[in-house]
Amino acid sequence: MPYTLIDHTADMGVKISSPTIEMLFKEAAHALADILGGRCAQGTEEMRVQARGIDREDLLVRWLQEILYLMEVRGWRLRDAHVEELGETEVKGVLQGACVQEPLTAEIKAVTYHNLKIVHTGDVFEVTIILDM
Amino acid sequence: MAGLKLRRIDPYRIEIEKTGAMRTSGLVYANAAIERTLEQETVLQQVANVATLPGIIGPSMAMPDIHWGYGFPIGGVAAFSKEEGIISPGGVGYDINCGVCCLLTGLTINEVRPLQERLLASLYNHVPSGVGSSNKDLAVGGKEFDQVLEKGALWAVKKGYVPTEDLEAHDDNGCMEGADPDAVSKKAMERGRPQLGTLGSGNHFLELDVVDRVLDSEKAAHFGLFEGQVVVQVHTGSRGLGHQVCDDYVHDMVASSMRHGISLPDRQLACAPVTSREGQAYYGAMAAAANFAFANRELIIYLIRQTFEQVLGGSFERFGMRLLYDCCHNIAKMERIAWEGSSREVCVHRKGATRALPPGDKRLPQRFRKSGQPVLVPGDMGRMSFILSGAQGSWETFNSACHGAGRLLSRHEAKKRSKGRQILEELRSKDIHAMAASRATLAEEIPEAYKDVADVVETITGAGITTAVARLKPFAMVKG
Questions:
Q1: CB contact B440 to A (< 8 Å)
Q2: Burial (0-12, 13-18, 19+ Cβ within 10 Å), B205
C-alpha cells in the first residue's frame, strides 16, 4: 500500500510515499477516501477539483479538504484521482467516481496542517498528514 | 524530554521552563498518576509551542486531561492580550463550542431501571446519531438559519423547543455576542444545515447516569443533586459547520500569519492579531458556529425531554427535567481578567477546557452566584463522571478547568485491544446498557482508551481550581 496509518492519540495520521509529487497528491486522495469508506470500484462520472494555496503543503491540505467536502456533502465516491496541473500555488485535477446516497462509514472533521512538511529525498516524496477525526 | 526543562512545582503542577523561542513558561496540571501519562514529548512540546505566540499573558497552560492534539494540545488554555495578542482557529479546534450539558431529572434510578431498555431504544431512535447524521424534522433554511447562528440557545427558546429557564444554564446565556453569519462560508452552511439537532459520531454521546455519590452536600443541594438521582449528559458540538469554519480560517490565517510577521513553530498554530480584519472575521464566524452548537445541544435536550414524556407518560416538567448547565469546551472568548494588579481584556483560548467561574463572580446568574459555576467532567463509558464547581483558585487558569478524562490510547490501539472482545457484553456485566451507530466507535471508545477521570479530578480539585460536588455512574448510553 502506498500509505500507512500512523498512531495519534485522538486523531489519525497518514504517511504517504510516492515517486512524484503528483502521485503523492493522488495517493493522499485515495487514502482519505479509504478512511472515510468512500471508495467505489465502478463509477464513470468525473468531477473537476481546483485549489489554491501559498505553497505545496497548503495546496495538499486544500486539495484534500475539497475532496472531503465533495464526499461528505455531495455524496461523491472516489474511484481514482488524477492531478493534471500542479504548480507552487495551484493544483488542478479530476476525480473519477460516482455520486451516491449512502452515508460514509467514518467522519473526518478536517485535514490539519499539524507539522505538515513534504520531504523530497532522492526519488521519493514523503508526507505525514494528521486528520482530525 | 529532550529540549524541554521540566520542574515539579507541587503535587499538582509541573512547570515547563521558558527556553528558546518561548515567550513565557508552560504550566501543566498533573499529579503523579497524570504525569505518567505524559510520556510523549509531543504533547508537552505543543504546550511549549503555544508559549511562542505573540501577546501571550501568563503561562501556556494544560489541564490534567491534556493529550496530543494538533497545534494546541487538547486541554490547552492560553490568554492573549487584546492589544498585542493573537487569535488562532487552531487554538479553538475544528469542533467549535463542542461541549457537554447535564439535564437533571427528579427521577430515581429505582424508578427508571424497569424502563431503561425502552428508554434507551427510544433515545437511540429519536436522537439522530452516527457518521453524517442529519435531522430533516428540525431542518431550517434561509434567513431562519441565520437566526440560529445569531441567537444560539435563544433561537431554540423563541421557537418554543425549550423553556426560557434553560438560558441561564449556559455561558453567555447560550448566545455568543459578535456572531456574524456573513463571515460563515457557503460550504460551512451546507455542511452544517442538515445536521442541526444531531449528535454526530466519534466521542460524542448521550448518557444516562445515576448520582452515585454526593461529595459536597451544600453545593449538591444548590445544584439540585441527590444520591440515586437520574441525570442525562450530552456531548456534541457544532458538527460540520464548525469544522468548515475552522478549516476556512486556518487556511486564511496561514497567509495572514506571514503577512503579520508571526513566526510559527507549527502551521496549525496559524493566527492573526485579535484586532486585525482577519482576526475579527474569524471571531464573528466562530461565534456563529458557537451559537449553532448551543442551539444543537438545546434541540437534543428537546428530543430527550420528548422521549422521556413518551416512554414514562407525563410532562418533562413533572419529571423535574431541568438543565443544570451547558459547558462549552472549545472556544476563544474576550474576557476581562485581573492580572498583575490591573484589569485587562484578553482573548482566552480553551481547547478542551471548560470555563470554571468561582463563587461570587458577577458573570454568574444568581442561582450559581453562591456555589460557583457547575463544571461537567465526563469520564469514559465504563467508569464514572464528575460534577465540579469553579473555586477561588481558578483565577490562575483564567477561570478554566478540565473537560473530561483525556484520551490515553490512539484509536488504532484501542481497536487492537478490543479485537475479539464483546464490548457491549462487557458493559452489560457492569449494568451499563449501550447502543451505538457503529461497532468501530464502540471499539475506539473502550474505557481503557481514556485516563482515569478520578486522577484528572483529583488534580484539578487538589490544585484549588474546582470543588468536587458529585460523582456519577453511567447506566445507559447512545454512542455516535
A1: yes
A2: buried
